[in-house]
Amino acid sequence: MTSAAFAVVLLTGGTVACGGGAESDSANEDPPKVTPAAAVAEAAKKSEDIASLHYRITGTMPEKGRMEAEASMSTEPLAMSMKMTAVDQGRDGRLEIRFVDEVMYVGGSAVASKKLDGRSWFRADPAVWGRGVADNNSYGVLPRQIEGSPAVQSTILTGSKDLRKIGTERIDGTRTTHYRGTVTGSGLSAARDAAADKATRERQIESLDQFYALGVDDTLTMDLWIDDDDRAKQFRMRGKTDDMRDGTDGEPLDLTITFLGVNEPVTVETPSAGDTVDLGALADDAQEGGATPGEE
To answer: I want to staple 62 with a disulfide (CB 3.0 to 4.6 A). Which of 115, 169, 251, 295 is the partner?
Structure first.
């Protein structure tokens, strides 16, 4: 089953959940001085112990327009639940997506309800989220830019050669230090090759993998907000993208991801079997000459 199977049951191409702003905190004293490179490296190192994460996404996505999403994920077992909205499509742009036991469930107003036959969810497997570029499989429902774990994406800035401190700000009431830099594939490759130990090298390999998943055209501008516990609190990724269909310039990517909770309990519920429709069966019916999923 390919991503085209899900494309025909979605009313829109829309997907993602909710934003957060930064407030200047210049009135407070700065934290102890540390180089931008050291601060970003320490935040990347601390990302390794994230077992669960509650986060939100806001911004614009190539071919999707304005997006909002809110999600919770766990790493052991690997599971995720997300509510996403294509803002410009209103009620018809809402999706709820769950990954449990390598099965994906999709519901919401953006799916063709007639094919659900009174049930709430489409079901597809095997489905994989949150791993490397080659391993993810969300059947085209999730844009590739958010198929990876945000905990890994937050480490991309370690490959920057022009890191600088912007200032001290508050994100959702949390005091943070704001850093910015640009990242290229060659810069991440050089950082990988220069890694002093195996753990750092593996982080750089994962960062490089996530960089390519973003589909940016050569250069990514990235902002990272780090709290007083040396953890990433928020990051923003901006860049021009390539159109994978014909190799021309694509639309801009501009996503902000805010960590709302780290290492808190996460439960992703599995919809009951009686409330799901197997997308694979629908696709097989269509190939055998039956009605195409999503047709009225």
So the answer is: 251
Distance (Å, rounded) from C-alpha 75 to C-alpha 97?
Answer: 17
**Tokens 């050291």 found at:** 38
Question: Who's near 132: CB < 8 A, 6+ residues apart?
Answer: 148, 206, 209
Q: Which residues of 247-267 are buried (b: 16+ CB within 10 A; e: fewer)?
A: eeebeebbbbbbbbebeeebe
d(CA 127, CA 139): 8
- DSSP string over 167-212: EEEEETTEEEEEEEEEEEHHHHHHHHHT-SSHHHHHHHHHHHHHHH
For 38, other C-beta atoms within 10 Å of its C-beta total 11
- Whole-angstrom distance, CA of residue 253 vs CA of residue 216: 8
Alpha helices in 2-99 (DSSP H): 3-7, 36-46
In the prediction, which pLDDT does 176 show? 98
Q: Are 155 and 207 in contact (CB under 8 A)?
A: yes
Choose the weakest-confidence range: 5-19, 124-138, 232-246, 277-291: 5-19
Q: Are strands 276-278 and 121-124 parallel, antiparallel or unpaired?
A: parallel
pTM of the shown model:
0.84
Question: Which distant-in-sequence residues (6+ apart) come within 8 Å of 15 by Cβ?
Answer: 61, 64, 67, 69, 84, 86, 95, 141, 142, 143, 146
Q: Considering the domain 3-287, what is its CATH architecture?
A: Clam (2.50)
pLDDT at 248: 52
Angle of the 185-193 helix axis to the 198-213 helix axis, nearest 10: 170
Contact between 106 and 277 (Cβ < 8 Å): no
**Per-domain residue ranges for the chain?**
3-287
Identify the helix (H) or strand (E) that includes residue 57: strand 52-61
Instruction: Name every residue whose Cβ is closer than 8 Å to that of residue 266 and which is 6 or more positions away in sequence.
Output: 52, 53, 54, 72, 73, 74, 79, 81
